[in-house]
Amino acid sequence: MKSRAVLIPCLLPAMLTSAGCNREKETSEPVRPALSIVVEPTPSAYSATGTVEPRYKTDLAFRVLGRLVARPVYVADSVTEGQVVAAIDPTPLELAVQSAKADLSKAQARLVTAKETENRKRSLVVSDATTRQALDDAEQVRAGAEASVAREEANLKKAIEQLGYAQVKADFAGVVTAVGAEVGQVVSPGQSVVTVARPDVKEAVIDVGTEFPVALQIGLPFTVSLELRPAVKVTGRIREIAPEADPVTRTRRIRITLDDPPDTFRLGSTIRASLEAPANSVLRVPASAVLTKDGNKFVWVVDPQSKTVSLHKLELLADATGLRVTGGLEAGARIVTAGIHSLKQGPTVRIDGDGTP
Length: 357
Prior knowledge:
Layout: H1 2-27, E1 32-38, E2 41-42, E3 47-54, E4 57-61, E5 66-70, E6 78-79, E7 84-88, H2 91-126, H3 132-164, E8 167-169, E9 174-179, E10 186-187, E11 192-197, E12 202-208, E13 221-226, E14 233-241, E15 252-258, E16 270-275, E17 282-285, E18 291-293, E19 296-302, E20 309-319, E21 322-327, E22 334-336, E23 349-353
Parallel strand pairs: 1-23
Antiparallel strand pairs: 1-22, 2-17, 3-12, 3-16, 4-11, 5-7, 5-10, 6-9, 7-8, 9-11, 12-15, 13-14, 13-16, 14-15, 17-21, 18-19, 19-20, 20-21
Helix pairs in contact: 2-3
């Protein structure tokens, strides 16, 4: 009994002290570091450099295999419609034509013989000098000879047509923008030998990234100027948007049709394309800052005075350039961009980094 009486007073202060420490630990929350950004309006102005390219261009190639013996045009040369721009050695094709002609003459001679034999058999059948079977055989031989003649005529037409493939002619008047083979080289069917472009329809070609301020759409207006002569400007509209981004640069190529460009807009010139009518500034947030809960979108907003975080519901619209805020957040707000799933309402945070969305 004495031992218990001595122990209880001694243990009581220790238990009270331990309980007080536990309450302190429960009530005091550690200060957590938080990676955050300040949401600022995305600049509406945008410009990008590119080049002037033709809208229509054709890679001219041979339809048959051969050795290139002539290519009288070079890069930047002007060509007219129907002009010969390349030729291969026609000797094998000429020999094929001669062979086809010989085969046709042989088939025609056989047809003449078959017809004469058929006529003799028919005369002999009338006088019962031969059988009906012999006449049927003669008719069959004559029909086969006619089919052979038709086949050889087709082969001759094909050989003559292929002889015409020994030359490549321009389909339209234009400018040579590239050459793909030199004289003496053996070229395969379909291999590009000369590229001809039409200089009358010009386009500006630029690559845009994810920082583009508005959604890309056909018809979006641009102002295009020469890089070396900024005072020379023309208007244009987007005609084509690449369906996929480049896997390396993550940019998308767009083609802008130019409205009556002057002669100074030569093919290959460097240009700068700017949005003609900049859109209103918009707020954008990174996907890593958005917390989805019960079908709604939230972000953790840092109070600049108390350094505490609180959930703010916001309205988002996903477009081609990212997540655009349509409501629930104002410019200048600081939001948490990392560890959003482990935060709770109210704890104090320490800002460890800043950036831009």
